[in-house]
Amino acid sequence: MFNPSLITGTHINYYTTCKREAWLYSRKIHADQWDENILMGKALSDIKEEQLHQFPFSNLKFDKIGKQRGHYLVTEYKKSMKNPKAAKMQLLFYMYQLKTSLKLKEINGKVISGKKVIYVEGNEENFSLIEALIEEVADFLDSPKPPSFILNNFCKSCGYREYCL
User: Structural domains in the chain?
Assistant: First the structure.
């Protein structure tokens, strides 16, 4: 079985967006590094690193953590909010990992992209949701073959599209 401790926020994001992309990424098959979207993401990441100082914890790399009104607040910045569900699940994954590993009493989060902000509560319902998703992703990534290609709204700007089309 794929070791759940190896799952990262990127696995969660990709799985929520496209299962095939998550499977390829889990096998260290890299997206087209010359893809326009990949290059833009790298450039934005370089700018962000200069301004922010990512907070690495274990195999997690989220953008910012701080205290607000007595609880911890994790912030993740995205270049776009094309898939708000994937962004939310990635953030929730980070929050869950921090809460369980560090035994935090209360943790919340937000995803920011331009003027759009998604707030994510660190409640039992959300943590149950992410626990189930982590188990589902681990089971899925254990599969010896990638899933069949399924065209979706994200394919046209995906760095992995050469592996699918």
Answer: 4-163 (3.90.320.10)
Long-range contacts of 85-89 (CB under 8 A, 24+ apart): 85/16, 86/12, 86/13, 86/14, 86/16, 86/17, 87/13, 87/111, 87/113, 87/118, 88/118, 88/120, 89/12, 89/13, 89/16, 89/130, 89/133
What is the tens place of the pLDDT at every residue in 133-158? 999 999 999 999 999 999 998 888 88
Q: Which two tokens stand for residue 58?
A: 């274990």
Which stretches within the chain are classed as H helix?
A: 9-17, 19-26, 36-52, 84-102, 124-141
Whose tokens are 């902000």? That residue is: 117
Distance, CA of 156 to CA of 68 (rounded, Å): 39
**Residue closest to 119 by CA, chosen among 106, 110, 129, 130:** 110
Question: What is the pTM (predicted TM-score) of this model?
Answer: 0.85
